[in-house]
């Protein structure tokens, strides 16, 4: 596949799809974000950059909170997802695909149903918390629902496969003989992992972090179903600015602030990871 | 880190000459099963409530066991149609996004070409764009171009927001592949297509499958984008959301349970096939 | 350390060099400019000029068919009422459960109506909220010709005939109504709840559920201040928002709920909450729970899901015929037996009582419960305490919702 045209042929379908159905509409939204007006009289393009200032001024709290929740959920996903992915990749044997299928199975059942179920299970005096309270492990007024904890674990729960699958896809490639060789060279198990397996799996972790951090920061479902007062995420704000207030320019402006922050974060993260990695390789 | 123990290391440990005094606990297995248990907990709750003997529509506390909802599983024609639509959209999305996204991931992971940076940027932008904005933007596109919204537009939208997930997954895998394998194949006289089919594709397959499954999972649970571009077509999540006003009927739990059962069945078939193969 | 031989250094670089070059950024901005140009420089003024009913209905005829967009579970899945309509008139109905909530339905149809397109429905059901007001003010609803609504004139409840949101039913007639009041769990609350002030009582710290809908919470805070929502002014809204902020900041509110407060109320996570009458009736009927529902002494609110015809409807005559048909007391009774919310046809109560008298066993009991339930057939005294929503002019709507979104979305 040396031919110069190959990469272009490979990306062409996706390019066309994303250009028509993502780039064009999102640019339309970019234009909307600079408009002024209201839904009754229509919106006119006035290049009103102040929309952005107002978006940040009014909603910086929710934006920061979303990024923080997203980061916590991502960390949780790495902590839970990496060992699982590694175990399936190395020890899953002939049942690898079965494990992956099991991992994804809960997500084919509607989120609304899963959440209703969680609410039943996590009720203040429900099957999970009730017994802990009656034996005195938890104070009487302890609750999980309607707290930031519930939102963050909910986010981690619903995005775990996005961490496990890319890490798995990469680790599955790791040649056991490399690890063996390291062990033969008297590397401890920890050394073999840190110096051989982990570096090889980084592309997967990178992909996983992207696919968890980005959507969780923009999520609105978990906060609205599991959160309480003071857990609103920026996704909820965008949602209600658009649908309830019909303030399309404001909704668009907040969106682009959020997207800019996330993209800056992604590329900063890629660079930070990059320099570190290169140094390690040279050492 | 027990998770990094390889079968080879295991075999060595099992060698009589080096046998350890007692079998080590496989913490990795325990942990994986614990995580699976966590993932399955709410599903278990859902299944239990599909047997709940309630008299009306609210299905909140346990009232006693009944099988009657399974007898009337398909009592709501709109719910059935919605479920079928969801499955059809999901499968089509998985196929289309799976193929286009994999090609994109392959190109991004392997080739250098003009527009690579921009492609990355667009891809990331597509996963961080909030759904309501994507939905609204797409709807206005369809309106200005006079496209009637419905089943087709739902598929278009779902493919659009899942392509990136597939591409990122596949790209990560491509990066760990050794291009020399393909070179070797070509040196041995294989054409580009043969090389792709016999060497590249099999190596990519786990990632393609993973990406396709992610696309499917995203598609079947989407609510907001679908509500914008769905026109008169209703999907399973849309119907459930709307029904919360008067109470979600137990049939919804039954259908969730049936979907789940099909998944479990697939898993079992998988296990049996794996047994046969080895 | 030695680089694992399979790890291509180029791969690592590729992984981490995802940042776009300057050239890519330039190209992208060119693309963006093209996109912006494509999107046009403004979203056109979308208001349509209002038409008189005479002009709208002139020359329109029945086409023997109509499309009805409704909420899920708002009609028996067998659609017996529609079958009867078809038998009666020969008009067939394509019934779709395509409305999930008012804002997203509005978001979906508004741009279509603005461009004069067909939304795929000739008859639709929406609540008397901000979205309804907007549709009306935008001129997107067909003015009703009451000469075509004789059954409505005869059987429609009088309290529905001159509402603040649609005086004289110029654009809509009710499909079903519901009361927003306070529901509480007597297992948890050891006193009788009678007033809105109970929702602000520090004794229930962290145990109070409020609704997320800006209008619903605004109504309750206004009523607490003794202001009738329909007559409220922006100054009243400020005071109401301050009340709600105080309630939230004192930790009294557990969470703001969408339509999902029944479960936490039954589980005991919240002890008292703003609630809709039909939900509480359903929950008690379905699971035998003893949740209490009260219309607070300061007053509660009544909301109505209304049938209306979009201005671009293809079959408006068939649509208005169905509207009228659903006001036949027997038909309305059938619907009420299924929906369990408040019917706009008072005579349906007698029909259900009659049916209960003729039925036997469990069914008899269920029908009798329904006919005598104040949640389904409020008494006149209760109707007197029920207020309509705030209906801010479209111009004020944003100022109104912003105040209350700031409460629930802090």
Automatic annotation (TrEMBL), chain A:
Residues forming the ABC transmembrane type-1 domain are 63-267
Against Gene3D superfamilies, the record matches this protein to: MetI-like (1.10.3720.10)
* Parts of the chain that traverse the membrane: 7-32, 67-90, 99-121, 149-171, 192-214, 250-270
Is Nucleus a UniProt keyword of this protein?
Answer: no
Pfam families reported in the protein's UniProt record = BPD_transp_1
Cross-referenced InterPro entries:
MetI-like, MetI-like_sf
The record gives the membrane topology as: Multi-pass membrane protein
User: This protein's superkingdom?
Assistant: Bacteria
One GO BP on record is: transmembrane transport
Entry similarity comment: Belongs to the binding-protein-dependent transport system permease family. CysTW subfamily.
Q: What is the designated name of this protein? A: Spermidine/putrescine transport system permease protein
Q: What is the lineage of its organism?
A: Bacteria, Bacillati, Actinomycetota, Actinomycetes, Streptosporangiales
Automatic annotation (TrEMBL), chain B:
Could you confirm whether the keyword Transmembrane appears in this record?
yes
PROSITE patterns, per this entry? ABC_TM1 (PS50928)
What keywords tag this UniProt record? Cell membrane, Membrane, Transmembrane, Transmembrane helix, Transport
Matching InterPro entries: Bact_Polyamine_Transport, MetI-like, MetI-like_sf
Q: Name one Pfam family in it.
A: BPD_transp_1
Could you tell me which Gene3D superfamilies the record lists for this protein?
MetI-like
UniProt topology in membrane: Multi-pass membrane protein
Which parts of the chain span the membrane according to its record? 30-51, 81-109, 121-143, 149-174, 195-218, 254-273
What GO terms fall under cellular component here? plasma membrane
Compartments, record wording = Cell membrane
Q: Tell me, which GO biological process terms does this entry list?
A: transmembrane transport
The chain positions of domain ABC transmembrane type-1 read 83-270
Q: Where is the signal peptide?
A: none
Superkingdom to which the source organism belongs: Bacteria
Which family is this sequence assigned to?
A: Belongs to the binding-protein-dependent transport system permease family. CysTW subfamily.
Which PANTHER family does this chain map to?
PUTRESCINE TRANSPORT SYSTEM PERMEASE PROTEIN POTI
Protein name as annotated: Spermidine/putrescine transport system permease protein
TrEMBL record, chain C:
**Origin superkingdom:** Bacteria
- Molecular-function GO terms, alphabetical: polyamine binding
Q: Which InterPro entries match?
A: SBP, Sperm_putr-bd, TAT_signal
Q: Where in the cell is it found?
A: Periplasm
PROSITE patterns, per the entry: TAT (PS51318)
The principal location of this protein is periplasm
Q: Which GO terms describe its biological process?
A: polyamine transport
Keyword line = Periplasm, Signal, Transport
Q: Which CDD domains match?
A: PBP2_PotD_PotF_like
Where does the UniProt annotation place the signal sequence?
A: none
Spell out the GO cellular component terms annotated for this protein, sorted alphabetically and separated by semicolons. periplasmic space
Q: Which PANTHER family match?
A: SPERMIDINE/PUTRESCINE-BINDING PERIPLASMIC PROTEIN, SPERMIDINE_PUTRESCINE-BINDING PERIPLASMIC PROTEIN
Q: Spell out the protein name for this chain.
A: Spermidine/putrescine transport system substrate-binding protein
The organism is: Marinactinospora thermotolerans DSM 45154
Upper classification of the source organism reads: Bacteria, Bacillati, Actinomycetota, Actinomycetes, Streptosporangiales
């Amino acid at each position: 596949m040396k031919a110069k045209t190959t990469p272009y042929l490979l990306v062409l379908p996706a390019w066309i799809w994303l250009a028509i159905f993502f780039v064009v509409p999102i640019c339309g939204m970019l234009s909307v974000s600079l408009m002024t007006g209201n839904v009754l009289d229509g919106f006119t393009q006035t290049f009103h950059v102040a929309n952005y200032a107002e978006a940040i001024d009014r909603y910086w709290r929710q934006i920061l909170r979303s990024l923080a929740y997203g980061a916590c959920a991502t960390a949780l996903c790495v902590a839970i997802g990496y060992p699982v992915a590694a175990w399936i990749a190395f020890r899953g044997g002939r049942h690898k695909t079965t494990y992956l299928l099991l991992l994804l199975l809960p997500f084919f059942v509607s989120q609304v149903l899963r959440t209703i179920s969680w609410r039943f299970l996590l009720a203040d005096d429900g099957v999970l918390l009730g017994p802990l309270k009656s034996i005195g492990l938890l104070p009487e007024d302890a609750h999980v629902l309607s707290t930031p904890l519930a939102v963050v674990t909910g986010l981690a729960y619903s995005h775990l496969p996005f961490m496990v699958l890319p890490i798995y896809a990469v680790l599955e490639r790791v040649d056991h003989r490399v690890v063996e060789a390291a062990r033969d060279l008297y590397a401890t198990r920890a050394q073999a992992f840190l110096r051989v397996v982990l570096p090889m799996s980084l592309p997967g972790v990178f992909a996983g972090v992207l696919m968890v951090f980005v959507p969780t920061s923009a999520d609105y479902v978990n906060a609205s179903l599991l959160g309480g007062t003071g857990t609103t995420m920026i996704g909820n704000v965008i949602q209600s600015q658009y649908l309830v207030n019909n303030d399309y320019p404001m909704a668009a402006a907040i969106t682009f602030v959020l997207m800019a922050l996330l993209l800056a974060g992604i590329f900063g993260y890629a660079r930070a990871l990059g320099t570190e990695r290169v140094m390690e390789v040279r050492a | 880190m027990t998770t990094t123990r390889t079968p080879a290391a295991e075999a060595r440990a099992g060698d009589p000459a080096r046998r350890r005094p007692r079998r080590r606990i496989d913490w990795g297995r325990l942990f994986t099963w614990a995580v699976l248990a966590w993932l399955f907990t709410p599903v278990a709750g859902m299944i239990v409530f599909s047997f709940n003997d309630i008299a009306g529509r609210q299905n909140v506390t346990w009232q006693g066991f009944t099988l009657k909802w399974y007898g009337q599983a398909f009592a709501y024609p709109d719910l059935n149609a919605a479920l079928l639509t969801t499955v059809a959209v999901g499968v089509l999305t998985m196929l289309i996004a799976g193929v286009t996204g994999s090609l994109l991931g392959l190109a991004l992971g392997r080739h250098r070409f003009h527009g690579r940076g921009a492609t990355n940027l667009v891809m990331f932008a597509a996963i961080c764009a909030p759904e309501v904005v994507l939905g609204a933007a797409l709807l206005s596109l369809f309106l200005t171009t006079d496209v009637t919204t419905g089943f087709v537009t739902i598929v278009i939208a779902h493919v659009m927001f899942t392509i990136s997930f597939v591409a990122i997954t596949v790209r990560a895998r491509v990066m760990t592949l050794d291009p020399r394998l393909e070179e070797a194949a070509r040196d041995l006289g294989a054409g580009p297509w043969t090389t792709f089919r016999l060497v590249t594709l099999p190596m990519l397959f786990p990632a393609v499958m993973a990406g396709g499954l992610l696309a499917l999972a995203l598609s079947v649970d989407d609510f907001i984008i679908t509500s914008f571009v769905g026109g008169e077509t209703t999907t399973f999540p849309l119907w459930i959301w709307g029904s919360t006003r008067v109470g979600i009927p137990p049939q919804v739990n039954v259908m969730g349970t049936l979907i789940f059962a099909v998944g479990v069945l697939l898993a079992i078939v998988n296990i049996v096939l794996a047994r046969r193969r080895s | 350390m030695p680089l694992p031989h399979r790890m291509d250094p180029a791969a690592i670089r590729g992984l981490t060099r995802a940042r776009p070059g300057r050239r890519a950024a330039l190209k992208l901005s060119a693309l963006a400019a093209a996109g912006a140009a494509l999107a046009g420089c403004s979203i056109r003024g979308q208001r349509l000029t209002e038409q008189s009913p005479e002009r709208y209905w002139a020359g329109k005829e029945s086409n023997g068919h109509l499309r009805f967009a409704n909420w899920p579970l708002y009609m028996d899945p067998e659609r017996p009422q529609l079958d009867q309509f078809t038998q009666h008139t020969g008009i067939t109905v394509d019934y779709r459960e395509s409305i999930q909530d008012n804002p997203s339905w509005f978001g979906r149809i508004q741009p279509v109506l603005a461009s004069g397109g067909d939304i795929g429905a000739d008859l639709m059901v929406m609540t008397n909220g901000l979205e309804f007001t907007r549709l009306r003010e935008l001129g997107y609803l067909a003015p009703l010709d009451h000469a075509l609504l004789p059954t409505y004139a005869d059987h429609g409840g009088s309290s529905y005939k001159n509402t603040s949101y649609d005086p004289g039913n110029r654009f809509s007639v009710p499909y079903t109504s519901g009361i927003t009041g306070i529901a509480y769990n007597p297992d948890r609350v050891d006193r009788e709840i009678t007033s809105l002030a109970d929702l602000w009582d520090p004794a229930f710290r962290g145990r109070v559920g409020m609704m997320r809908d800006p209008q619903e919470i605004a109504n309750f805070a206004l009523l607490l201040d003794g202001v009738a929502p329909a007559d409220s002014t922006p100054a009243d809204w400020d005071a109401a928002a301050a009340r709600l902020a105080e309630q939230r900041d004192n930790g009294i509110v557990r969470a703001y709920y969408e339509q999902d407060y029944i479960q936490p109320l039954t589980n005991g996570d919240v002890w008292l909450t703003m609630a809709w009458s039909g939900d509480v009736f359903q929950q008690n009927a379905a699971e035998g729970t003893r949740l209490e529902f009260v219309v607070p002494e300061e007053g509660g609110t009544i909301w109505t899901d209304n049938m209306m015809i979009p201005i671009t409807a293809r079959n408006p005559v068939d649509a208005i015929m169905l509207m009228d048909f659903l006001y036949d007391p027997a038909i309305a009774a059938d619907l009420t037996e299924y929906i369990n919310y408040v019917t706009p046809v008072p005579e349906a109560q007698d029909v259900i009582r009659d049916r209960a008298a003729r039925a036997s066993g469990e069914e008899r009991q269920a029908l009798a419960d329904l006919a005598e339930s104040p949640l389904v057939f409020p008494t006149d005294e209760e109707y007197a305490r029920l207020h309509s929503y705030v209906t801010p002019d479209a111009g004020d709507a944003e100022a109104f919702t912003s105040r209350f979104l700031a409460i629930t979305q802090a």
